[in-house]
Write a structure and sequence with these properties.
194 residues; 0% strand
């Protein structure tokens, strides 16, 4: 068991194996040829990637950003050179995969147009989708380019580095703000919507 848990890759693989065992044991009607199962699978992927995305967003805003002033200067490179770049990699790609899985879910369930145009009956999910798209845009086109400067991945002058760090932080806070109504709207749709 220790050999599984000491490797992230093996741990995740074991999670998928456990899922398959549970599906077999409890007689799940998993049928990849069934369109209903495919719709479910993309919804599950959307939720799984979304948990990672919002979890990392909240980690940055509730843990890393408030903790940085408390970390001695000689220890900050460990965050800026090792932890933050890795967290930002997973942050960016979980945002991308969340949006992709969500869009595929909307298309294969036949409500993409109604949601994007905020039609009655799809207004909540549509608002949630628009908020998520704004947030994903912020991740890829504001937060990440500025974090590259702030972390020294891209060389810039000290004042540009400080400005980039502030813009990345403020945009991350905007995403934290947007995450609250976005998550509400996503769940509200299944419970009567708006």
């Amino acid at each position: 068991m220790a050999s599984i848990l000491t490797s992230l890759g093996r741990t995740v693989a074991a999670g998928f194996v456990l899922l398959l065992v549970l599906l077999v044991l409890f007689g799940s009607n998993v049928d990849p040829t069934n369109s209903g199962w495919l719709r479910f699978a993309f919804r599950w992927l959307h939720v799984m990637f979304g948990v990672m995305w919002i979890g990392l967003l909240w980690y940055f805003n509730f843990v890393q950003i408030p903790s940085m002033p408390k970390i001695p200067d000689e220890q900050k490179p460990a965050i800026g050179k090792v932890i933050a770049p890795t967290a930002l990699f997973w942050f960016r790609f979980s945002a991308m995969f969340t949006v992709a899985a969500g869009l595929i879910t909307a298309v294969i369930n036949g409500y993409a147009h109604q949601a994007f145009t905020l039609q009655p009956g799809f207004r909540a999910i549509g608002i949630g989708m628009w908020l998520a798209l704004i947030m994903a845009f912020n991740v890829w086109f504001i937060i990440w380019p500025n974090q590259k400067k702030a972390l020294g991945i891209v060389a810039v002058e000290a004042d540009a580095k400080a400005k980039a760090a502030r813009l990345a932080m403020l945009t991350s806070r905007v995403n934290t703000l947007l995450s609250v109504p976005m998550l509400y709207m996503m769940v509200a749709q299944q419970n009567g919507g708006l």
